[in-house]
Structures are given as C-alpha cells and as structure tokens.
C-alpha cells in the first residue's frame, strides 16, 4: 500500500494515457468526470491560498497531467456518444439537460460563450502574463545575484542565507520559464475542446441519420444534449485550471493568501467604500433604474465604510492611550489623587531616546492593521545598523500628533525635534537627475534626507519619470530613509552608559579576561563611553570591540587624554575604516597642500580643555571656501566627502570643520590600508 502511495502520480498518469485507448462504460466515465472536477477545484483553491508561486512549484507539471487526463476523458466520452446513440453517462446528460432547457440554440450559445471566455480572456491573458513574467525574471537575475553578493559582503547575511536566496532565485526563473510553456498547453486544450465538440455533433448527427434512421429533429435533440454536456464537463474543469494558472502567474506581491489579502486590503480603505455607496445613491436618480438593489447596496457600503473608519480611529486612539498609559491617570481615579504618588510624577519627565510623530494621513503607513510596513522597515534598519556599526539603536517611539499638519512628520532625539518632513501618501517622490530626459508634472520639493531637488508625482506618471532618468521612491521609503539618516547623524547621542555596559557584557562572552583587565584598570566606564562616542560620531564602526580594548590595553599611557586614545584606536581599525569609505579598491579624497598643513600645525594651541587649532581668519576663510567647492564635487560623484591629512592634525581639523561641514570625514594617512589606491581629486592650498 505504501509503495502504491509513493507512486500515485505515476499510476494517475498511466490511467490518463489508458483513457486515450480503452473505452469506458458510462458508470466509470461518470467516476472519472467527477474526479476531474474535484482535482480542478482543489488546484484552484490551493492557488488561492498560497503566499508566493514557489509554494506551488509543481503546478506546471500538474497542468500537463490534468490536461492529459481531461483529454483522455474527452476521447472516452466521444466514443460513448458516437457508439451508444448519445448515451455517455449520467453526468454528461445532466449537464446537457440543465444548460439546454429544451432549447438547442440557447444551449449552444451558452456553451460557445463559456469556451470563448476561457480561450480569449483567461487563457490568453494568463499566457501573456506568464511570458512577461518569465522574461522579466530572467532579466532581473543578474541584479538579484549582485544584491545577494553585496549583502553577503556587507555582513547582512551569512553564506547559508546567501545560498538559500540564490537557490530561490534559480527556482523562480525555472518556475516562470516552465509556466510560460505550460500556458501553451492550456491554450491548446481550449482549441481541442472546440474541435471535439464539433466532432461529437457532426459525427453523431451523421450516425443518427444514416445508420440509425432517426429524424433530423430527434437526432439534433439527442446528440445536442450529449455534445453540450460533454463540452461542459470538460470545460468547467479546464476553466478552473485556467483560472488557477492566471492566479499563479499574477501573484507578484503577496503577504498572505488571496482571500486574506483581498479582505485586508479592501477593508483597509473605508473611504473608497463610502464613495462607492455615494455613487450608487446618485444612480437612484436615473429614471428606470432598479431602486431597491441600488438603495440596499448603497446603504450597506456606506454603513460598512463608516464603521471601518470609526474602528480605525478607535484603534489609533487606543494604541496611543496604551502607549501613554504610564503617564495618564485612569478614568476612575481623579487626576489630583493620581499624582499624589510621586512615582507617577516621575513618569511625566521620562524622555524617549527617539520619537517620531506624524499627521493623521500618514497613519496608514505606520498602522500594521491597515497594512503599514513602517515598523518592519525600522526593525530591518536597526538590524543592519547593528551589524555594520556594532551599536544597537534604541526602540523608536511612533505616535500621531494633532499638532502637525496631516502630511507632516517630526523626528525627535531626547525629546527635542531634530528633523521634520512632509509626505504625500498618494504620490511618488521623483529625484531629479543631473540631466533629465524630459520634464514631468509634479509638485516641486526637496528630498528630506539629502536635500535633493525632487517632485511629488502621481502614480500614473511613474513609468514616464523613470524613462526620463528620475529615481522614483514610494512615500514610505522616503520617510524611512529620512528617519534612518537622522538616526545615523545623532547616533552618538544615543550611546549612554547603560548601552556601553551592554556592549561590554556582550564582549565578555568571548573575551572576559580582556574586559576585566581594561575596565576599569586602564580606562573608566565614563572615559570609555567618550571614546566610543567619538568613534560613532565620525561614522567609525565599534563592532570590533576586542581590537578597541586591546589597543587601550597595549597603548594607553596613564593620564593620556581621550583624543590621543581615540587616534590610536582609529589606527588599529584601519581595515575597518578603509572598508567603510573605500569603493571598488579606490579611495577618492581631497588632500591639503604641504604649506597649508604646516600652517595648521603651527596654529595648534593648548588650554585647560586640551589642544585646538587657532587658525588665522584669512587662512580659515580660504580653507572653508575651497572645501565648499570640493564638497560639491563629491556630491556630483555620489560619494561621501573625505579630507586626507596627517595624523598630527586630523582630530583637530575635524573639530574645526565639523561646525561648518558636519558631513565631511577627515581621515589620516595611517588609517588607510596599504592595498587601497588613493585618488586625490583635488588639493586645497594656501
């Protein structure tokens, strides 16, 4: 029995082939027809409940098998119709009687319409979609492979994950290629069904008239029932399989099953339901329109939309109330009584590390119940930042605010606003290229994260904008990018003592003796925090904590200032720094003229706070003016601005330039690995 189960598919295929040869009695033909309809219904339902096409990767082969089985049934039924005077079983007769209803012409018209709908609409459309999907999937393979290699190189995924993703890409290409060929089978099956129907009717009529001596009316009545019935019992399963084919190849983006996605996405748009109900009410004014169905449909849509809208507002209020429950008294306790407890007062002065407030129209981008992906994108960013920089960003507090315009959002660090932006949810942001291929209608704006000139364009203009060279970004990506870049700029403010202790405890798992030796033996927790803050502030990863601690243990002199310690650590992290700023084995930089470096070195001065650059005003003005021009060149190259100088003045030069050009990185020669080609795009002179 177990062996039979393991070879069930092979047995099924053999049966399908035998149907082409062996004639079946009407009873067994009925059984095969019912099995065919059952299998087709199961295939359709499975295709509706999968999340992505690869979950049903056997579909192309299954399509061939079911088509072969259906053709075998067609041939067996044709044998019975032509040899038994139209008697081909109860199922075919029932379908024929039900459709014809005593009228041969109407029955044939209905049958022809069903065949044409399957052939022209569903099958032809699925064939075209499968062809395009196969072509696009194959074209996108190199880009996907490069993206996997980039993620692997950046450490975002490991070798096993990369291998799994490559296998998935290959399976997708094979699947869509197979589907492109399999849809041709469906198309051929539809054509064959029309031919078999014509053969049944014409052949049966000839046999009835010449061999059986029946009247023409009796012949048409007898063979028309059998022909239409046979056509329907083959076309209905074929229609189900064709529909399943269309669903498989058109499911490009899905979060759940088709049932779940349709329900979730329709119910997430209550305004559309209300507006549709309003349109139905307007149709009531048209003379002759059926009043009752329109009124019932309009009322149902408006009530459903209103209820869903209220529910979404209540969920937002409840979510906000839940997030603020620690700072608000309950309804049963008077406010004065609640704040008698001093602990409740302390809750009022808590400051969130990172907050993001947004207007009402941006709620759908954030609210997960409405399909919002903001939280998922933030989680991905936190993971990537931790893998790259070795520092875990605190949780981001999201809340709506009545003090903002509906399209605005504000980003706060430690309770104070550091950035804000405005999003048009129903538009796309098109970043203008240096030389656009054409002009496009839109609302002029600046991209909030980088200040790039942009336009908010309508979705229907997206393809045109991309053709003109614009980079088109969806609203959620605009907001997430602005948030991530703002967090990167202020990450050093989020590295507190508690997080430093967490990092040290994590390092203790691998090197407990090293941590115990260095802290507090060589450096205190407070000074170690200052070291890490200095590195994070200049964009230097602190992931290699053992190297940082080893450098402190091996090179720190008692009483040495934090600045000197940081410079030694940067030298030890030169491979990390090189990898961070190098692109394709090259490091593009701006250098300082030797005379200018001598001038800056002679300008070093000391006070109680430490060493600093006391640069002459005229030298300072020339330096900043030339650097401003160089920053523009780096922007044209789409690269971070880097100034390369000597180790002696690197830290002091950075402190000088930071207040004017905070995005400029200042590196020393000893921080660059020897296997990198340094390309000086310009030289700043006196």
From TrEMBL:
<protein>
    <recommendedName>
        <fullName>Flagellar biosynthesis protein FlhA</fullName>
    </recommendedName>
</protein>
<comment type="similarity">
    <text>Belongs to the FHIPEP (flagella/HR/invasion proteins export pore) family.</text>
</comment>
<feature type="transmembrane region" description="Helical">
    <location>
        <begin position="232"/>
        <end position="254"/>
    </location>
</feature>
<dbReference type="InterPro" id="IPR025505">
    <property type="entry name" value="FHIPEP_CS"/>
</dbReference>
<keyword id="KW-0812">Transmembrane</keyword>
<feature type="transmembrane region" description="Helical">
    <location>
        <begin position="266"/>
        <end position="286"/>
    </location>
</feature>
<feature type="transmembrane region" description="Helical">
    <location>
        <begin position="7"/>
        <end position="25"/>
    </location>
</feature>
<dbReference type="Pfam" id="PF00771">
    <property type="entry name" value="FHIPEP"/>
</dbReference>
<feature type="transmembrane region" description="Helical">
    <location>
        <begin position="190"/>
        <end position="212"/>
    </location>
</feature>
<feature type="transmembrane region" description="Helical">
    <location>
        <begin position="98"/>
        <end position="121"/>
    </location>
</feature>
<keyword id="KW-1003">Cell membrane</keyword>
<dbReference type="InterPro" id="IPR042193">
    <property type="entry name" value="FHIPEP_3"/>
</dbReference>
<dbReference type="InterPro" id="IPR042194">
    <property type="entry name" value="FHIPEP_1"/>
</dbReference>
<dbReference type="InterPro" id="IPR042196">
    <property type="entry name" value="FHIPEP_4"/>
</dbReference>
<keyword id="KW-0282">Flagellum</keyword>
<comment type="function">
    <text>Required for formation of the rod structure of the flagellar apparatus. Together with FliI and FliH, may constitute the export apparatus of flagellin.</text>
</comment>
<dbReference type="InterPro" id="IPR006301">
    <property type="entry name" value="FlhA"/>
</dbReference>
<keyword id="KW-0969">Cilium</keyword>
<feature type="transmembrane region" description="Helical">
    <location>
        <begin position="31"/>
        <end position="50"/>
    </location>
</feature>
<keyword id="KW-1133">Transmembrane helix</keyword>
<dbReference type="InterPro" id="IPR001712">
    <property type="entry name" value="T3SS_FHIPEP"/>
</dbReference>
<keyword id="KW-0813">Transport</keyword>
<keyword id="KW-0653">Protein transport</keyword>
<keyword id="KW-1005">Bacterial flagellum biogenesis</keyword>
<keyword id="KW-1006">Bacterial flagellum protein export</keyword>
<keyword id="KW-0472">Membrane</keyword>
<keyword id="KW-0966">Cell projection</keyword>
<feature type="transmembrane region" description="Helical">
    <location>
        <begin position="57"/>
        <end position="78"/>
    </location>
</feature>
């Amino acid at each position: 029995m177990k062996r039979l189960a393991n070879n069930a598919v092979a047995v099924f295929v053999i049966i399908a082939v035998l149907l082409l040869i062996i004639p079946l009695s009407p009873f067994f033909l009925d059984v095969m027809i019912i099995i065919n309809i059952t299998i087709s219904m199961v295939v359709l339902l499975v295709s509706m409940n999968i999340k992505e096409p690869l979950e049903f990767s056997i579909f192309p082969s299954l399509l061939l098998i079911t088509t072969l089985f259906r053709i075998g049934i067609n041939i067996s039924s044709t044998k019975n119709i032509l040899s038994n005077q139209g008697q081909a079983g109860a199922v075919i007769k029932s379908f024929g009687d039900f459709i014809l209803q005593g009228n041969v012409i109407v029955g044939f018209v209905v049958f022809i319409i069903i065949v044409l709908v399957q052939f022209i609409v569903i099958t032809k459309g699925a064939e075209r979609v499968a062809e395009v999907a196969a072509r696009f999937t194959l074209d996108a393979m190199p880009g996907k492979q490069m993206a996997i290699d980039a993620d692997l190189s950046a450490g975002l995924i490991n070798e096993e994950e990369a291998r799994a993703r490559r296998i998935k890409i290959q399976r997708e290409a094979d699947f869509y290629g197979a589907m492109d060929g399999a849809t041709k089978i469906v198309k051929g099956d539809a054509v064959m069904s029309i031919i078999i129907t014509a053969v049944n009717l014409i052949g049966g009529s000839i046999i009835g008239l010449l061999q059986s001596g029946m009247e023409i009316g009796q012949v048409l009545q007898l063979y028309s029932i059998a022909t239409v019935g046979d056509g329907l019992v083959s076309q209905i399963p074929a229609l189900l399989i064709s529909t399943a084919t269309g669903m498989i190849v058109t499911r490009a983006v899905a979060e759940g099953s088709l049932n779940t996605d349709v329900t979730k996405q329709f119910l997430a748009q209550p305004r559309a339901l209300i507006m549709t109900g309003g349109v139905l009410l307007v149709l009531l004014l048209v003379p002759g329109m059926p009043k009752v169905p329109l009124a019932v449909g309009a009322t149902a849509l408006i009530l459903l939309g209103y209820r869903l809208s209220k529910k979404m507002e209540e969920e937002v209020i409840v979510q906000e109330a839940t997030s603020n429950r620690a700072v608000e008294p309950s309804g049963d306790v008077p406010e004065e009584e609640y704040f008698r407890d001093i602990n409740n007062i302390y809750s009022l002065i808590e400051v969130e590390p990172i907050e993001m407030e947004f207007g009402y129209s941006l709620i759908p981008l954030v609210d997960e119940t409405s399909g919002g992906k903001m939280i998922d994108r933030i989680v991905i960013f936190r993971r990537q930042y931790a893998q790259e920089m070795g520092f875990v960003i605190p949780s981001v507090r999201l809340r709506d605010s009545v003090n903002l315009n509906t399209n605005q959002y504000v980003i706060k660090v430690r309770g104070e606003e550091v950035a804000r932006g405005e999003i048009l949810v129903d538009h796309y942001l098109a970043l203008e290229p240096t030389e656009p291929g054409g002009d496009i209608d839109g609302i002029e704006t600046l991209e909030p994260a980088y200040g790039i000139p942009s336009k908010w364009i309508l979705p229907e203009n997206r393809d045109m904008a991309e053709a003109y060279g614009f980079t088109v970004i969806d609203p959620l990506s605009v907001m997430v990018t602005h948030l991530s870049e703002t967090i990167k700029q202020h990450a050093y403010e989020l590295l507190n003592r508690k997080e430093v202790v967490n990092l040290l405890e994590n390092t203790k798992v691998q090197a407990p003796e090293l941590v115990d030796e260095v802290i507090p033996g060589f450096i205190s927790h407070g000074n170690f925090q200052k070291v890490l803050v200095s590195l994070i502030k200049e964009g230097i990863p602190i992931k290699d904590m053992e190297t940082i601690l080893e450098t402190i243990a091996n090179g720190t002199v008692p009483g040495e200032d934090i600045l000197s310690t940081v410079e030694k650590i940067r030298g030890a992290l030169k491979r990390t720094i090189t990898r961070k700023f190098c692109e394709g084995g090259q490091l593009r930089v701006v250098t300082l003229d030797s005379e200018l470096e001598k001038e800056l070195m002679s300008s070093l001065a000391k006070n109680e706070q430490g060493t600093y650059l006391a640069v002459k005003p005229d030298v300072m003005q020339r330096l900043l003016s030339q650097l401003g021009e160089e920053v523009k060149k780096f922007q044209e190259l789409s690269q971070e601005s880097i100034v390369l100088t000597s180790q002696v003045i690197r830290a002091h030069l950075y402190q000088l330039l930071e207040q004017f050009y905070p995005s400029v990185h200042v590196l020393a020669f000893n921080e660059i690995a020897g296997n990198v080609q340094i390309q000086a795009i310009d030289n700043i002179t006196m």
